[in-house]
Structures are given as structure tokens and as C-alpha cells.
Request: fold
Amino acid sequence: MIRLVIVDDHGMVRAGIRSGLPADIEVVGEAADVQSAVSVIAAAEPDVVLLDVHLPGGNAQAVLQQSAVDSRFLALSVSDASQDVIGVVRLGARGYVTKDITSADLATAIRQVAAGEAVFSPRLAGFVLDAFTGAAAKTDDELDRLTSRERDVMRLIARGYTYREAADELFLSVKTVETHMSAVLRKLQLSNRRELARWAKGRGLE
Reply:
């Protein structure tokens, strides 16, 4: 059973999605705006969040930035604009489909995202490929700033390890892990562990 939260500001759209879902996908929450979405996602901890791109009080990117759960996100929108697609993917969405998708194809996309796959229509996949191919050199440059040990620490912390757990895993002291983490955040120009987790996830490094 896949546990799903639906985020869309139109009740009719949510009802239509819900009615078209097969028995193996259970709706465990719904929301119509950014703040209620963040709250519902935190409370329900779903496997997948089906997330409208444009919402009252912000957009899908605001929801992604404020959500600190391990749920996978599938963007759903009437928009197929490249900036919308790339914007949510950079923040960790695993897929992006448009609202002309059939109920059967949507269910398939939800299952694929739940399994850890990335899901895009061919046109949208082209946007993502172009964007991240162009960013590859920059990503390598950012990683090259880190020492081998800093990369080890970065990956563990990005996966959710505590400093103590990372220290035990790498046979280091907690103080040394903290020192490496400070260097990682400084070199990558990030502010905290949550930003690091999103940075690593967006690059497949977690």
C-alpha cells in the first residue's frame, strides 16, 4: 500500500484524483495551500506527495523547502514551463507530470516515484537533462572543493546520521566530524544540515 498526500488548491481536482486511484494507493491527507501542506505532510509522513506547482501562499518550491520528511514528491501541474520543472527538481522532486495525464498513468507515476524512480514525460525530461547536464561541471567543481574525508562526512550527515553516528562509522571523534562539517558548509556556501541534505539529494549524492 502506497500512502499518498494530495496537495492542490482545487477541491474538485483533489476529488477527481482520489476517485481515480487504484486500491493500492491510499490517500492519507490533503491540503490546499503551502502552510497546510507542510503541516499535513509532517503529520502523515506519506510515501509520496502529489504536489501542485502553484499554490496559495507560495508554490511547490516553498513546500519542498519547508518539508523535513523522507517522503518522495511528484509535481503535478497544468504548466509545462521549463523553469517550473527545473525549480522543483532542484529541490528534490522525483518527477513532474502535467494535469492532462490519465488516471492510470498517474497511478503508474506514483508507484514509480514511491519505488525511487524519476518520472517525467519525454518533453519535460528533456528540460531536466539539459539543465543538469549544463550544471554537471559546476557540481564537480563544488565537490572538488571538498577533501575525501569531508565528502565522507558530508554523505553520512546528508543521510541523516548524527555527528556521533558519523564519528562511529568513520572511526573519528565527534569533534573532528564537527570540524569537517563546518568546512563542508563553508565551502558549499550552505547554512545548515537541512540545506546540505537537499544539496546532496539533488545531485544523487546522499
About this structure: The chain has a mean pLDDT of 86. The first helix runs from residue 11 to 19. The radius of gyration is 18 Å. DSSP finds ten helices and eight strands in the chain.
